[in-house]
Amino acid sequence: MTAREDVVAALAAFTPRPIERRDLKRSAVAITLIEEDDGPAFLLTRRAPTLRGHSGQWALPGGRTDPGEDAGETARRELFEELGLGLDESTELGVLDDYATRSGYVITPVVLWAGAVGELTPNPDEVGAVHRVPLTLIDVEPRFLTIPESDAPVIQVPLFDRFVHAPTGAVLHQFREVVLHGRPTRVAHLEQPVFAWK
């Protein structure tokens, strides 16, 4: 069982690494922890098939940071815009390492505690489907591939008989390592598949 205080303690013991690159746009994603009858879970979406970029891919709620926002504000705003779930600043538990994407963003993963969550209202313009994923399903060993386009390994996290790739896969793997196992594993070096480079 992973309780709120366990997540707080694990994140407090971890020192996240920021990435400062002026050539990349700032963004944030929400790792939104919820309480389900059978244990803790998090919210994961499939991006709407009509989106111009990264349609149909697994994603954590998130997006580009607006002027004057910090990462927590961005993550909470995007969570509300995508799933209709409004959370205040008190739900922010901490952050993981920044991850620089091939498509020109630095992502800051923000861990939020939503507790018991009722019906969600996904925005059909952005979200094709939303899943309440038990934390036990991401407590697995990822697969690493080599590709000719990069010297860095491509991470694949098995989920629902498919694979979640970076950046989402990298973020979820680090969450598993840091929060579920207390290991300060780094993931910023892990590669995205070529189809996600644009």
UniProtKB/TrEMBL annotation:
Keywords: Hydrolase, Magnesium, Manganese, Metal-binding. SUPFAM superfamilies: Nudix. InterPro entries: CoAse, Nudix_hydrolase, NUDIX_hydrolase-like_dom_sf, NUDIX_hydrolase_CS, NUDIX_hydrolase_dom. PROSITE patterns: NUDIX, NUDIX_BOX. Signal peptide: none annotated. GO terms for molecular function: coenzyme A diphosphatase activity; metal ion binding. Residues 24-159 form the Nudix hydrolase domain. CDD domains: NUDIX_CoAse_Nudt7 (cd03426). Its cofactor is Mn(2+); Mg(2+). PANTHER family: MITOCHONDRIAL COENZYME A DIPHOSPHATASE NUDT8, NUDIX HYDROLASE. Belongs to the Nudix hydrolase family. This is CoA pyrophosphatase. It comes from Pseudonocardia broussonetiae.
